[in-house]
């Protein structure tokens, strides 16, 4: 019987509590059982679990099952775990010092603007998001300037520049849409990008998403609600809060929020953007964690 300790952090996020207990794996049935012993408080630095494993061979598959069993038991018992065992490829070893102290994978967010001009507010908001320092998250700006207008009826082949665009988005864990409101709806640029992405079902399906909009009166609110409706068809999971609407009306009570180059100069909007991305990060972790348990529920007894 070997005792092993493992620590996961970074990409895994944080948790409030997890169960400490023993876990047994039967060789024939490949099922896990875990006795509840007590709860231990966990700091924000990551998730730490202790597992007892029976058997002569300590394989990578056993490691994954053990970690999944402990994670599922913690969640089922009511503990709030924001963690993903996405990189659980190493075996459980006899000494904890041989395991990495921190996982470095971050949530990758594809920033998709709704206008082509580099001086547009939507492009400026994507640049502002890239510059924010948010633990466990990185924003990748996506170039949409080379996308042609979709025309699959006359030309069913996807152009190379569109394939590159789709592949960039496919590698992301989440999407940040930044766009103005046009005639109570999304811009043609935003709709065109989504329509191209929808031709590859794995580019958007199951991903989380957030929206920051601009507009003259309601701050682009009507566009946001229409975009959420479009996202239903592509199986996007939008966060519900916070909702960030940026009013671009300039008067005595509302100074400019962007400079002549389209760069964000309003600290209040920057703070709202940061909270939006933090919420997107946390929701992405929760969704991944839920999906991970659902895919492996047959292993848990």
UniProtKB/TrEMBL annotation:
The reaction(s) this protein catalyses: a quinone + NADPH + H(+) = a quinol + NADP(+); a quinone + NADH + H(+) = a quinol + NAD(+)
InterPro entries tied to this protein: Flavoprotein-like_sf (IPR029039), FMN_Rdtase-like_dom (IPR005025), NAD(P)H-dep_reductase (IPR050712), PSII_PsbQ (IPR008797)
A GO cellular-component term linked to this record: extrinsic component of membrane
Pfam families (alphabetical): FMN_red, PsbQ
EC numbers: 1.6.5.2
Gene Ontology terms for molecular function: calcium ion binding; FMN binding; NAD(P)H dehydrogenase (quinone) activity
Positions of the NADPH-dependent FMN reductase-like domain: 108-247
Gene Ontology biological process terms, A to Z: photosynthesis
Highest taxon listed in the record's lineage: Eukaryota
Name this polypeptide is given: NAD(P)H dehydrogenase (quinone)
Gene name, Swiss-Prot/TrEMBL: LOC105167959
């Amino acid at each position: 019987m070997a005792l092993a300790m493992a620590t996961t952090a970074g990409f895994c996020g944080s948790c409030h509590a997890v169960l400490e207990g023993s876990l047994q794996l039967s060789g024939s049935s490949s099922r896990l059982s875990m006795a509840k012993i007590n709860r231990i408080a966990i700091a924000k630095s990551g998730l730490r679990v202790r597992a007892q494993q029976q058997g002569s061979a300590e394989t990578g598959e056993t490691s994954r099952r053990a970690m999944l069993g402990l994670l599922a038991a913690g969640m089922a018992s009511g503990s709030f775990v924001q963690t993903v065992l996405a990189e659980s490829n190493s075996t459980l070893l006899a000494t904890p010092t041989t395991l990495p102290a921190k996982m470095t994978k971050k949530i990758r967010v594809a920033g998709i603007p709704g206008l082509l001009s580099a001086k547009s507010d939507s492009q400026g908001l994507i640049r502002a998001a890239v510059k924010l320092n948010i633990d466990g998250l990185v924003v990748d700006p996506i170039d949409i300037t080379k996308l042609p207008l979709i025309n699959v009826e006359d030309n069913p082949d996807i152009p190379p520049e569109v394939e590159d665009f789709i592949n960039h988005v496919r590698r992301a864990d989440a999407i940040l849409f930044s766009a103005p409101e046009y005639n109570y709806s999304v811009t043609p640029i935003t709709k065109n990008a989504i329509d191209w992405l929808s031709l590859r079902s794995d580019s958007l399906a199951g991903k989380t998403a957030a929206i920051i909009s601009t507009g003259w009166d309601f701050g682009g609110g009507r566009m946001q609600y229409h975009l959420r409706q479009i996202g239903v068809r592509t199986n996007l999971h939008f966060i519900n809060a916070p909702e960030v609407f940026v009013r671009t009306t300039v008067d005595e009570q509302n100074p400019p929020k962007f400079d002549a180059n389209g760069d964000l100069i309003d600290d209040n909007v920057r703070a709202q953007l940061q909270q939006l991305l933090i919420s997107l990060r946390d929701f992405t972790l929760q969704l991944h964690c839920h999906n991970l348990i659902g895919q492996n529920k047959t292993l848990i007894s």
